Amino acid sequence: FFGRALRDQSQSMRESGSNVMAAFEERVAQVQLIKAFGQESRETAVVDAASWQSYRSTLRMLAIIFLLVLVLTPVSCVLIGYAFYYLMMQVIAGRMTLGDIVLLAGYGSMLANPMSIIGSTWASVQASVAGLRRVHSVLDNLAEPVSDGRGDGLGGRIKQLEFSGVAIGYGATTVLSGVNMSMHAGEMVALAGPSGCGKTTLIHSIPRFVEPSAGTITFGGVDSRAVAPDTIRARVAFVFQNESLFSISIEDNIRYGSAGASTAEVREAAAMAGAAEFIDRLPDGYATMLGRRGARLSVGQKQRIAIARALLRRPEIIVLDEPAAPLDPASEAELLGTLTALARDRIVIIVAHRAGTLAACDRVFFVHDGTIAASGTHAHLLATDRDYQAYLAQSAAEIPA
User: Fold this and answer.
1) What global pTM score does this model have?
2) Which domains does the chain have, with CATH numbers?
3) pLDDT tens readout for residues 16-33
4) Does residue 104 carry a pLDDT above 90?
5) Alpha helices in 245-370 (DSSP H)
6) Does residue 353 sit in helix, strand or coil?
7) Which of 57, 79, 238, 359 could form a disulfide with 13 if both were Cys (CB 3.0 to 4.6 A apart)?
């Protein structure tokens, strides 16, 4: 009974503690926004409420422990007292001697210590069980796709990526359907379309972050479901829309995912991404330690390091989710030149909004109304597709040139 109570309350106490930390960290991260809108008092009250909830949860845990002691101590004393009474009555009746009592008491003391250790261990492990429950509540919902066993991996270099009748969604919601695309090594292609149309979902299906609910995605004719995700991801490099950097050195961030890369290779990747120039200007160069999420760098600098990290892996497919968004026109032109050079022997996929980026690509796939509505060169789509024209006009109004 008390084991279950301790376990459940331990879980509640951990959840309350996590809520306090989450509330505190979120408000520290958004401190400028809070001050700008004059909401200091309100947010302080939110953190205080979460803190008091955690405090009350801790008090309930202490109350359960106190109740446990209050209930079990008298019961144990009564049982011990009754045992001695019974044994003494046996001595008075002549059925036992005092020597027998001393012997039994010795045995009892020898048993008491390990039994108390077992009991205290069982009680203390309940808090750990509660933590393990929380871990499994997350892990059980992160089922990783596996190979269906129809193939043992990819063969040579990936020279073609094809989507055939693909439908993708989340749960019962379908985001895209009837997607048909074919991409080949030696070309740079773009995915364009209004915000929220499903471009990011589409590229996330390439390394099997998202599984299609219909249709097939093939790498050089091999169905992606016949290949383990790790095998695909080892040959596909991603540059995410939100720069993902660790609070380690710049060199270690670039080398992330390519632990065996030499210093020369790291510098070469940085130069290809246009990051070498600003890194060399830093006092500690490549050894510069970054703050949390790369707080010491500008958005554009963080993006270039993320691109260098992807290039260092020498992937056969490079996927970039709006890589030019934080860059100035000169840096964008430099990056596009680098990507064009890389596309000579691999597939480069760019999610983009800017007309300049789209024009630099060999082909553009226009995502509209839940499918690939049109494809072709930027100039061709601009001349023939009214929806594409309207999309570019809206993008030009929203995005600085």
Assistant:
1) 0.67
2) 2-139 (1.20.1560.10), 160-398 (3.40.50.300)
3) 888 888 888 888 877 877
4) no
5) 250-255, 263-272, 276-281, 299-312, 329-342, 355-360
6) coil
7) 57
